[in-house]
Amino acid sequence: MKKFSTRAVPLLVAFLSFPALAADPIKIGVVTPLTGTYAPIGQQVRWGLELAAKEVNASGGILGRPLELVFEDEEANPAVATQKAEKLLQVTKVDFLTGTVNSGSTLAVGQLAERNNRLASTTVSFSDAITGDKCSPNVFRVNARAGQQSAALAEWLAKDKGAGTAVYYLGPDYEMGRNTVAAFKAAAEARKMKTVGEVFAPLGNNDYSPFFGQMRAAKPAVLYTSVAGNDTARLFTQLDEYGLRKNLLIVGASGTVTSQNMGALGKVADGYVTGVGYSPEIDSPENKKFLAAFQAAYKADPDLYGTDSYGLIYFYKAAVEKAKSTDTDKVVAAMAGQKFNAPNGFEVKMDEKNHHLWKPVFIGEVQKDGQFNVVWKTKGPIRAQPWSPFIEGNDKKKDEPEKKG
Fold it and tell me: Is residue 388 situated within a structural domain?
């Protein structure tokens, strides 16, 4: 796997134009972490966007215009993300913003995009609030949100462990961490599993041992966590060193263990289970083609972030071509309700109400060879509403309508 530089990159522009595309470019601002704890996630975002943009430009661009990606380092910090997004909107004059990882950053950038009448999208952030109670009509999300992952993961866990299973929660102490823990706790408790403890650690935490005494005393059978990036390696390694991995099933958010940090985790990730929207193991012609192109370009596997970032470009392309314009209002109207094929070959749909995808979720378990094995999947796309099964064609009840963005 490639090693990445951690030096600051204040502004990085990818000129993905070709001689045949002489028209003014469509500029996409990418505000993503290029340094810090979430830099590996930002790298996958960049790879996915660049690969798709290169393909789109090679085939004639969008409405005859090339795509130009302009990168800024958000450092997984909402204040920094807002500053960088403002620069991209006011100085670079981008048409569209994406790339944010930190859920707080996504919420802040989405509000800024709305005030400037521009589009924004996330391919990473999990917080349900982004396309829930804090939704913006200008914001779209193409990755699986916390409620979707939690619904599928809790359903599988209930089948595997049964009612009364003791679950302990450890999340990062910010918007995403608290939201993902709340989503899974609600889903698990609805299936009669028992909460025995809950703690939140600072983002970029180096020492998790102060939390281990409380966890040991709670005697959980399952630990749910939503730490991500470099924090995962520290948490899992310290759990192993303190003897807490024995007889403990670790489950969590899809961003906790990915192809980007699996190599650093090694055997301490064995047996980890998560709900994911993507796995390289998906056996479809479309996924095999995408996987081959990604591996050829970067000598690494795509994870869910690289895959959804790649898919975002084609989603945006389809919407602009349907609208016959890059005008924000026209593209928003074209995106709502739009169906398209994800890179893995499955058809997905953008919900008209909350601008979030209906998509299938796979339950993946980390094997000793360092690969995810898909052990279960939903019967169809999970609808874009929080912490309920909502498997299309298999609904058991109808939920309350979600606040419209």
Answer: no
With respect to residue 191, please indicate whether it lies within any of the assigned structural domains: yes
The answer as to whether 1 is a domain residue is no
Q: Which CATH number goes with the domain that contains 341?
A: 3.40.50.2300
Question: Is the CB of residue 389 less than 8 Å from the CB of residue 357?
Answer: no
- Which pLDDT value is given to residue 21? 53
Q: Is 261 exposed, middle or buried (0-12, 13-18, 19+ CB in 10 A)?
A: buried
Contact by Cβ (8 Å): 167, 196: yes
Q: Are residues 154 and 275 in the same domain?
A: yes
Q: Which helix (H) or strand (E) segment is 55 a member of? A: helix 39-58
| Region label for 288, one of left (φ > 0), alpha (ψ between -120 and 50) or beta (otherwise) | alpha
Residue position matching structure tokens 């994800």: 342
Pairwise CA distance, residues 53 & 67, whole Å: 6
The CA distance from 297 to 284, in Å, is: 20
Beta strands in 123-203 (DSSP E): 139-141, 166-172, 194-201
User: For position 147, what pLDDT does the model report?
Assistant: 79
- Quickly tell me which residue has 């005859």 as its tokens: 64
Cα Rg for the chain, rounded, in angstroms?
A: 20
Neighbouring CB atoms inside 10 A of 326's CB total: 18
pLDDT, averaged in runs of 10, over the chain (405 residues): 39 46 88 92 96 98 98 95 97 97 93 96 88 84 84 92 96 91 94 97 95 97 94 95 95 85 86 87 92 97 93 96 96 91 88 82 84 82 52 36 36
Number of domains observed in the structure of the chain: 2
Q: Is residue 393 part of a domain?
A: no
